[in-house]
Design goal:
This protein is mainly alpha-helical. The chain has one domain (about 10-445). The protein is about 65% helix and about 5% strand. It has 19 helices and four strands. The chain has a two-stranded antiparallel ribbon with strand order 1-2. Strands 3-4 form a two-stranded antiparallel ribbon. Helix 8 runs antiparallel to helix 17. The longest helix has about 30 residues, at about 340-370. The chain is globular and about 55 Å long. The protein starts with 9 loop residues before the first helix and ends with a helix.
Length: about 450
């Protein structure tokens, strides 16, 4: 006896190719297991394999020539740095991680996104992740169940835990950037209103993350997005945000003392800086010392921890204090300079920095070139993509890759790569008949 199968909904069938990318973002909502395998990382690898299989089945060119050059450029510096690593294991593991984050996953996302409809779906998944993590973070702050901050368990870390205090801040900030880009675009009034509401709602969890780097990167990025969307709109939105800030902080006193103290610490570089600032600048000096000794190829991938003490001063502490959010007190070793540019410079040298940062600069130039003069359909995609890249490039001054949230960096670079290198500027008005037919055939089997 045969049963009639209900055909897949047309919208779901049309969006099927990009759903693996959405799944990677969705898996970042799961709690992080310290020392365990991360589902999002594993699925991002499966997403790359899925892309390769699709390319082989469809027998089409993997990437446009420009995209192949820009995304493949870092391979040169990475290969040289892997050859100079202290051990083959360190070289191979470091090479695999860098290729995953900066080459393979962004290329897979670029290939999975077919048009602006797919782009917006993935951008909204960033917003959804940010709202989920932000809600958990605010709950942690209110109930004092977050990571330890100045003796109280109030730091919002979401599901990333105290061992990755920057994870929630990055997720919330990138979601906020996507929401601002959509709100400033030319989508429907309802969609723009929802996006604006999401952006405002994400300000609270970003604030209680107490992440100075995320604050600076988000402020810079939103200012750039506003300017690119038009000066008149920029002034209106800036005035509204300033008024809201006065009401929340001044009127209701939402975290005013702690936030003000954290904001003031940003400027305390030479005038009584806290230990975290001292550690950061000491690590930066250590990274530059490594580069001076190995200017072209660096000390090799994953070589910073091994060479750190030989270039650091006595001002460097033994490690960062970790506690709260379900983790007992311990000290976490400082194994990176907390600056992506200096990490690349110390481990990969000038060749690595020029090839990796050169690819980022090419993405920025191509993205801005496609954005300038665009005031109609596609403006939201342009603002989201350029905003994500500006945020990452700014945040790289205060942080580097590492931890479960790193895969989100790779997914964001994929969105940027599609807009800058492969976006055709057309929106999907109806599902592709071939895609629907193939999806229904798969179900029928």
């Amino acid at each position: 006896m045969t049963h009639a199968l209900t055909p897949l909904p047309r919208r779901a069938a049309a969006a099927a190719p990009v759903l693996p990318a959405v799944a990677v973002v969705a898996l970042l909502t799961l709690p992080v297991t310290p020392g365990g395998a991360e589902p999002a990382d594993a699925v991002s690898g499966l997403m790359v394999v899925y892309c390769v299989i699709r390319l082989l089945r469809e027998r089409r060119r993997p990437l446009p020539p420009t995209a192949a050059v820009v995304l493949g450029l870092p391979v040169v510096g990475l290969t040289l740095a892997a050859m100079g690593a202290s051990s083959p294991e360190a070289g191979l593991s470091g090479l695999g991680r860098y290729l995953q984050v900066f080459v393979l996953v962004p290329a897979a996302v670029l290939l999975l996104i077919r048009d602006r409809g797919d782009f917006r779906l993935l951008a909204w998944s960033f917003v959804g992740l940010a709202l989920w993590q932000g809600a958990i973070g605010v709950h942690q702050y209110v109930t004092r169940t977050g990571a330890s901050y100045q003796g109280a368990d109030i730091r919002a870390v979401g599901t990333f835990g105290a061992q990755d205090v920057m994870g929630m801040a990055e997720a919330v900030a990138l979601g906020l950037v996507c929401a601002v880009g959509i709100a400033l675009g030319r989508a429907s009034v309802r969609q723009r209103a929802v996006a604006a509401g999401c952006a405002l709602a994400l300000l609270a969890p970003l604030a209680v993350s107490f992440s100075r780097g995320a604050w600076i990167a988000t402020a810079v990025t939103c200012a750039v997005q506003l300017v690119l969307a038009g000066l008149r709109r920029a002034l209106k939105v800036a005035a509204a945000v300033a008024a809201l800030g006065v009401i929340l902080v001044g009127g209701f006193g939402v975290g005013s003392a702690l936030l003000q103290q954290r904001i003031d610490s940003i400027a305390q570089v030479t005038d009584a800086p806290d230990q975290s600032v001292v550690d950061r600048y000491t690590l930066w000096a250590s990274a530059t010392g490594m580069w001076r000794q190995h200017p072209l190829t660096g000390v090799g991938l994953k070589g910073f921890p091994e060479y750190r003490d030989g270039h650091a001063t006595l001002a460097l502490s033994s490690g960062a204090e970790i506690a709260g959010a379900g983790v007992s007190y311990r000290r976490q070793a400082l194994l990176s300079p907390h600056n992506m540019y200096l990490l690349v410079l110390s481990e990969q040298g000038l060749i690595g920095l020029l090839t990796l940062a050169g690819g980022w600069l090419a993405l920025l130039v191509c993205g801005l070139r496609r954005l300038i003069g665009r005031r109609g359909p596609g403006l939201d995609c342009a603002l989201v993509a350029c905003g994500l890249l500006v945020w990452l490039l700014t945040d790289f001054v205060y942080g580097d890759i590492g931890g479960p949230s790193t895969v989100l960096t790779a997914m964001g670079l994929g969105l940027v790569a599609w807009w800058a290198l492969a976006g055709d500027g057309r929106a999907r008005t109806a599902p592709r008949a071939g895609a629907v037919r193939r999806a229904e055939e798969v179900v029928a089997r």
